[in-house]
Every structure is written in structure tokens, then in C-alpha cells.
What does this fold into?
Amino acid sequence: MSANENVITHIRDLLGPKGWIGAEDGPAIAPYLREERGLYIGSALGVARPSSADEAAHVVEICAEAGIAVTAQGGNTGLVGGGVPFSGEHPAIVLSSDRLTRIRSIDAANRTITVEAGVILADVQKAAAEAGLLFPLSLGAEGSCRIGGNLSTNAGGVHVLRYGNARDLVLGLEVVLADGRVWDGLRGLRKDNTGYDLKQLFIGAEGTLGIITAATLKLYPRPTVVETALAALPGITEAMELFGRIAEAAGGAVNAYEVMNRFAVDIACRHVEGVRDPFAETHPQYALIELAGQTDGLRETLERVLAQAIDDGVAVDAVIAENIAQGEAFWAIREAIPEAQKREGGSIKHDVSVPLSLVAPFIDKATQALEAVLPGIRPCAFGHAGDGNIHFNISQPQGMDKDAYLEHWQDFNARVHDIVMEMGGSFSAEHGIGRLKRGDMYRYKSDVEIDLMRALKRALDPDGIMNPGKIFQ
Ligand SMILES: Cc1cc2nc3c(=O)[nH]c(=O)nc-3n(C[C@H](O)[C@H](O)[C@H](O)COP(=O)(O)OP(=O)(O)OC[C@H]3O[C@@H](n4cnc5c(N)ncnc54)[C@H](O)[C@@H]3O)c2cc1C
It folds into this structure.
């Protein structure tokens, strides 16, 4: 029996028949090896599916001893190829969290929930709601992404401007280290200044420093009042001006502020059933606004700010949802955009952030830069503008061959990211580095920053078995 076969037998014996999917299991392994958009197809000896932190620790220990790489995987909805294994110098296994799905406890008085890494984000939200509380992390993939993946990518989503990114929602972590030991840092404390804040190292590390097996998360009071509005605007400059006005008037009650340009709304309505533009006229720019809180008066605030904005020419028209269904219909436009883009042909993507004051200049400058290279491109600019985060995705010119268009991917990325970096922004606002953005990381981060990152990697994973080929080249 070869060394690899030995390891497989060992893990299979440990986890039982439900706990291992091997190459011999045929198509069952395929979804674990393929990145969401098919950009990467990986290879692995198999998929380990532990059902407890102890089992996960044993799997890592076995792999560490045999020099086998371990790629952690949650819902595999990440968009940078981070969760797909690549056998470089080490053969690899996937360690899936899809059987680590227990909600261990809810402490309503402490406003915390402790969940295993494989709990689907929507199930964390549901468990919090059943306890009368709110877990505010919310994103398009919430029905399939898992909390371990959310923390490992430091996911953002639609409520960052009020509650912060995933890292702001974590009080404690349980992590399997690269040598198979378990660090139990599952504390539920809002104040704990006892040395380095180790949990923050593993959050956003994309599985390159250890495997998160459980987390203690912050919960919040559930808002009793939610007001949703859709504003039609002359352009992105006005959309950012309106955001400033809303933030000033509503303070901490701004739950979400999303923008969508005309093209984004058009394709959402054209390609996704049930999605429609509520305005009679077409407008160049839309903003989706959500206020939420415990007190009445939010609707009046929204009405006042929007009416003033229309008087001042900042907005052209606005509609405030009369009921939950109408609010959901506004959100449906925003949520339909990624699917609509797929159906519209080739799309070159950028997930970037710039200071709030530079969102409009960025979109203008980047659009002009790309139009100069390839006339007819169709920018689909949408996203979390209240965080300065724009999904600046560029659909192919009409009639152009898709493959020929996608050959511009690297060139477009370089041009757009150069503009972003000149503006003090980030070339990856939400999705991390994975495999896709490693080149950008080396291009834009300083040597000092890369050295610090490498030093941490060496300290925590000296043999380089934790998700090799991700973040680092
Ligand atoms: C339609 C759609 C909308 C999206 N919207 C957003 C959005 O608004 N904001 C946003 O931030 N992202 C968004 N994403 C991207 C994606 O959903 C997030 O990155 C999500 O957090 C990934 O979770 P996952 O469980 O799918 O992780 P995976 O894709 O399985 O893994 C992601 C990374 O985390 C690592 N990892 C996974 N589990 C663990 C673990 N237990 N321990 C250590 N490392 C682990 C993996 O190795 C990989 O590097 C969207 C994706 C889609 C398809």
C-alpha cells in the first residue's frame, strides 16, 4: 500500500463511510473540486467530512505527519478559487465542514451564539431570529455559504456599514492548527485585552493558517421598524451625495445603501423573472436604501431627506416601500444582478473599494480608461456604495465573441486596479485573494507587508500544508 493509500485508509477508518469521499466514489467528489464559476478545477486524494472538531483535528494530524495538504471548504461559494484544492508539492485533501453543522448554544442574555463552522449562514440567522435576536451578516450566497467560510473570507455583504464585516461579529473561535492541536478560544467576551487577539489572525486567512471548527458570534436586537426605498438619480455623484445626506439624518439607522447603474437594472429586469423597475421613466442611476431601528420616525426621516433631495436636483424620483413585499421587490432587483450578468455574456469582474469621497470619480475614470481600450464595453457598476465597495463588472460589447472578450481580463484588471490603488483603495474589497488575486497582491502590497504575512504563515504553518497555493504564490 502506498503512503497516500495508507493515509486514506486511516482517515476513512476514523470518519466512517459518511466521512470520506474518494476518487472511487465517482461524480460525488466533483462539486468539491470545482470553483463556483468553473474558473478552477482542482484535484485531491479525496474529501474528509469530519463531524466534530476532534475528528477534524485527527484528520489534520494524520495529514501533517504524512505531508499532505489540507484545503478547508465551506459552501464553496467563494469567488477567488480559495476553497478548491491544488496539489503542488504536496498531495491534497479537502476538509469539508458540511457535517460540522451543530448550533452548540445560544446565550440570549449575553447576545451570543456558538455554532460549528459548517452551519449555513441562513441557518445562523434563523437560529438567532428564533431567539428573538439578529445575526446581521447577510449576502447573496447566504443560503449555501457556511459560517467557517464567511469568517475565513471576512465576508462583507449588505449590512457592513451598520454592523461591520464578519470579523467585527466574532467574539471567539475554535481552530485546528496545522499540527493537529486544537486552540479553544471560544470566549463570549466583548472586552478581553489579554495579549494578541489570536482569533483575528484566522479570520480572513482563507484557510492558510488553520481550520476554523466553531465560532462564538455576536447577536443584536432585532429592528422592529424597517423602511426600504428606491431612489432614481441623475448619476453616481448624486447617489453618493444622497448617501451622505441619509447617513447624516438617520445616523446609525442606515442598514444598507446599495447602488445600481442603468445597465445593471436593465439586465436584472430582462433576464430574471419577476424582477421589474418600479419607475415609469428610465433613470441613469438607482440607490436602494434601508433604514432599520427600534423607534418610529424612520419613515418620516426617509421622506424628508428624499423630498429635499428631489427639490435640490440630487434625486429625480423615489419610492418608499408600502409593505414588506414591496421592499423585497426592490431588493430582488439588486440580488438579480449577478445572475443577469451571467446571462448577458462575458463579464470581467472587479470587487474594489475606494474612500467614499472617491466612488464617483473612480467609476468615471475607470469607465473612460476601459472605453479607450475597447469601445462598446458595458459597465455594470453596482454594490455596497455605503462602504465605498463597488462591484465594477464589465459586460462584453454587444455581438463580440465571448472568449475573445475574456482575453482582456488581465489587462482590464490591471488598468482598473491601478486606478483603485492610486485612489488609496483596495483591489479586493470582499472576496479575498485565493488563487485569483495573488498576482495583484504581489503587485500592490509593499515588501514589508508581504514579509509580515510570510512570517505569520511560517510561524503557524511551518510545513506549508494549510491550503497551499492560496494567498501566497
Ligand atoms: C451570489 C453570490 C453573492 C455573494 N455576495 C457576497 C457578498 O456580498 N459579500 C462577500 O463578502 N462575499 C460574497 N460572495 C462570496 C462568498 O459567498 C463569500 O466569500 C463566502 O463568505 C464564502 O463562504 P463559503 O462557505 O462558501 O466558503 P468557501 O468558498 O468554501 O471557502 C472560502 C475560503 O475560506 C476557506 N475556508 C472555508 N471554510 C473554512 C474553515 N472552516 N476554516 C478555515 N478556512 C475555511 C477556504 O479554504 C477558502 O479559502 C458571494 C458569492 C456569491 C456566489
